Every structure is written in C-alpha cells, then in structure tokens.
Amino acid sequence: MDLTSLSNPLVTLDQLSSSSSQLDGLSTELENSIRFGGVQLTEAAGVLLRLPQEVIAQAVVIFTRFYTGPEGGSFLINPVKDVSAASLYMIAKISAIPQTPRSVLNVYAYLSLTAPKSRMDAPSDRQRPDPESHYLTTGAYLAARTTLLQTEAMILRALSFITKVVVPHHLALTFLQTLGVLPSPPTSKSRALAGRTISHLNTGLFSPQLLYLTHQPTALAVAAIYVAAKEIGVNLPCSEWWEVFDVDREELGFLVVGLGSSRLWAEQESRKWVEGKCPLTVEEIMLEMERGREVQ
Fold first, then answer.
1. 20 to 30 A Cα–Cα from 136, which one of 126, 198, 226, 258?
2. Where, by residue number, does the polypeptide cross the bilayer (predicted)?
C-alpha cells in the first residue's frame, strides 16, 4: 500500500537532542511540563472554538514543532499563549472552519481568566464567567491581533513555511474498516474499539517522546489500533497485518509502549502541579527555574 502522500516531515536526531529552550538553560523535565501545559491550552481553546479534533491535533503538532530543535522557538523568549493561539489560528485558517482573529483572541483571554491554580483544581461551571460575556476592548484587541499575526509569521519562518500536518485519526478509522473490525452498521464492541483507538491518538499528542514528530501518522494509527484491540478484546488478523500499512514490528513495539505510557505520564504530570499552576508565561518560567536552583 502506497502511503507516501500521507506522510509528514519528521524531526531529526539533532533537533530531538537539543532545543532552544535547553540552550537557554531550561531543564528537560521543566521543558516537558511546559510543553504539556501548552498542549492543554491549545486543546482547551480548540474545544471552546468548536473546532474538529483533527484541526486541534494539527495545531498541537505545529505548536510542538515550533519549540523543537536549536533553530526553533524558546519557552524563555516566545510566550506559550502567543504560539498556541497563532498555531490554532493558522491551522484553522486553512481548514473548512476558519476563525477570525477576534474569536481566537477572545477565547485565549477567557482562558487566561479561568486558568485554575492547579490542573487538578478546575473551577466549576458556576464559578466560570460566561464566555459570551468576555470581550476584548478595541485597544486590547488591536494589540493582541498584532502579536497574533507577528507570531504566525515567526512560526512560518521557523518551519520554513512547511505547514503540512497529516494526523492519524481518520486513517485509524479507515484501517479499522480495512481490517474488517469496524462493520456497517457498527456493533457496540466495534464502537468501543474505535473510541479507544481515537482516545489513544489524542493522548499521544501529550507524549514527552514527541511521537507525532518522530513517527508517521500511519504508524501511529496502527499502534493505536493494536493497543485498543488488546484492551477491548477484539481479535485482529493473526498475520503481521501492520506490514500492509508499511509499519515494521520494531516500530510498532516502540509506539505501543509510547502510547501506552502517555496516559500515565499525563496523569503524573497533572499531579505534579497540584500545589500550583504549571508555569506558562516567560516570567513564571523564570521564577520556576530560580526555585529549582535554590532547591539544588
């Protein structure tokens, strides 16, 4: 099966081994935490904008790509909120559901007001302000719009204007149909299998191993199907079916472990910041780095 048209540009070993943030003195552990918080922010904004998960996932990949490698952005220079907003705006603009700068910026302003002290201590719906009631003033909007467009241009330059992002979600559903385990009409078990597969793909976006940047979407789809089938108890073909989708056993094994550990890592990361909000602004990050030096 020729799947070359469904491939993404992948990061190199040099880009994985060193980032601008690390060169600026950020530890790998804190860098992973900030990236995790940035992905959460992008996901939350996408949901409030009612964007499809495919568009949100594409924006997350662009956000993650930008901060990868020594030529990429640095968390100590390029604010997470600005890059997250520009990534979502840029990807939505070339989708079937483009968003105005005003809509995107209003959502991020709303999220900045409702950010919980801890990721595990989100305010109740009764405590949250009405999203419809929050609206940037003209002056604040014009300033934020300028920053949004400047950040978008900066991301495009950093990525050499390569914005192609193929995500594995629809591929996974197609592969399930090809394997004959997603019949029409679907059964309760096949629905559970499809749902668990998509869930693993969504969780993989948070992986500290940057699975979406190091592996092609076909491989991610195959691995998510494999893990989900084991969990649901669905029998897949006895032959090495993954080879049909151009995935070898070694890559499949790595991704199965990576996807399987992503949820546990995300839960641990949320508990890690139970005493305080994960630092996302440049000022918060610098303060966290100073605390770390004091502890040492």
1. 126
2. none
Q: % helix / strand / coil in the chain, to the nearest 5?
A: 65, 0, 35
**Which CATH superfamily hosts domain 18-165?**
Cyclin-like (1.10.472.10)
Spatial separation of the C-alpha atoms in residues 38 and 68, rounded to whole Å: 14
Residue bearing the bigger pLDDT, 93 or 274: 93
Q: Which of 52, 45, 122 has its CA nearest to residue 87?
A: 45
Domain 169-272, CATH: 1.10.472
CA angle 101, 116, 150 (to 5 degrees): 25
Average pLDDT over every residue of 227-253? 93
Q: What is the CB neighbour count within 10 angstroms for residue 109?
A: 17
Looking at the predicted structure, is the pLDDT value of residue 85 above 60?
Answer: yes
Q: Where in the chain is the domain with CATH 1.10.472.10?
A: 18-165
- The whole-number pLDDT of residue 117 equals 40
Quick one: average pLDDT of 39-65? 96
- For 149-174, letters b (16+ CB in 10 Å) and e give eebbebbbebbeeebebbbbbebbbe
Per-residue pLDDT, 129:
56
Q: How does the average pLDDT of the chain come out, rounded?
A: 89
Q: Are 111 and 196 in contact (CB under 8 A)?
A: no
Q: Please give the angle made by the CA atoms of 91, 247 and 8, to the nearest 5 degrees.
A: 20
* pLDDT score, position 113: 77
Q: Tell me, rounded to whole angstroms, the distance of Cα 186 from its chain centroid.
A: 29
Q: What whole-number distance in Å separates Cα of residue 256 and Cα of residue 273?
A: 27
- Quote the pLDDT of residue 130: 60
Angle at 65 between CA 61 and CA 66, to 5 degrees: 120
